[in-house]
Structure formats: structure tokens, C-alpha cells
Design goal:
Helices cover 37% and strands 12% of the residues. It contains two helices and two strands; from the N terminus they run ααββ. A two-stranded antiparallel sheet has the order 1-2. The longest helix is centred in the first third of the chain and has 18 residues, at 20-37. The protein starts with a helix and ends in a 30-residue tail after the last strand.
């Protein structure tokens, strides 16, 4: 099962739950946790005036500056894909 299939199953079941609000909140937490486990490439922020750059967390809610040897963001836990990053 892919992570997309797992999320879809959780979302469908949240509609049928007698405690729909609680289940919907639990689904959102699970969805965020699954998405953070998917490897994502760091975002590159350039500083042309000083001919430099920094690598930032690809998680839209975070955006923290990253260390290039870390397997995940130290602030939000987003898994990082360092392939093809020089």
C-alpha cells in the first residue's frame, strides 16, 4: 500500500465515524506524520549579492536552515533527500 492509498482510506473512514470530528483530527495528524516520512529535497535559497546560498527545509510550515549531513529537519522531522545535492 502506498502512502497516498493509506491517507485516502483514513479520509474515507473519517466520514463514516460516529465521532467524525475526533476521527478527522486523528486522520490529519496521521496524514502529516506520513507526509514527513517521505523524502523531500531541500529548498535552495540563493544570495546573489554575496554569491552564496543556504539549504532550507522543504516542509512549507517549517523552512528552517538545514545542515547538509542531517537525515531529517531538526525542527519538524521532515525526512530529507540529499541525492544530487552538491
Amino acid at each position: 500500500m502506498t502512502h497516498e492509498e493509506a491517507i485516502k482510506i483514513l479520509e474515507i473512514n473519517s466520514i463514516c465515524s460516529p465521532k467524525a470530528t475526533e476521527f478527522k483530527n486523528a486522520v490529519e495528524i496521521a496524514k502529516n506524520a506520513i507526509e514527513k516520512q517521505i523524502l523531500k529535497r531541500p529548498k535552495i535559497k540563493s544570495f546573489p549579492k554575496i554569491n552564496g546560498f543556504e539549504l532550507r527545509c522543504p516542509n512549507g510550515d517549517c523552512g528552517a536552515v538545514l545542515q547538509s549531513d542531517s537525515p531529517c529537519c531538526r525542527y519538524c522531522g521532515q525526512a530529507l533527500d540529499w541525492s544530487d545535492v552538491e
